[in-house]
Amino acid sequence: MSCVSPPSSARWNDLLHPVVAGLISVIVNYGGTFILVFQAAHALLNGRWPARASASLPKEAN
């Protein structure tokens, strides 16, 4: 009984689409994270972040 192995090009073609999809997924996920970080840094540098954060906190009774 002999085993016939598929040609190596078939293996590369089988891996191409999952690898490309994985790379796109990583780029999109990290891109979204960096956008959020840069938006937060921009708001912090412009002095808008503390006003928004403190506006949602309850007032303390004296």
- Quote the beta fraction: under 5%
How large is the count of helical segments? Answer: 2
Shape: rod-shaped
Write down the overall mean pLDDT: 77
Work out the number of β strands.
0
Biggest beta sheet attributes: none
Show unreliable segments. none
| Separation of the first and last Cα atoms | 89 Å
**Structural class designation:** mainly alpha
What is the assembly state of the chains in this entry?
Answer: single chain
Helix content: over 70%
Rounded to the nearest angstrom, the radius of gyration is 25 Å
Helix-strand string: HH
Describe the structure.
With 62 residues, the protein is mainly α. It has a domain of 31 residues. It has 2 helices and no strands. The longest helix has 38 residues. It is rod-shaped, with a radius of gyration of 25 Å.
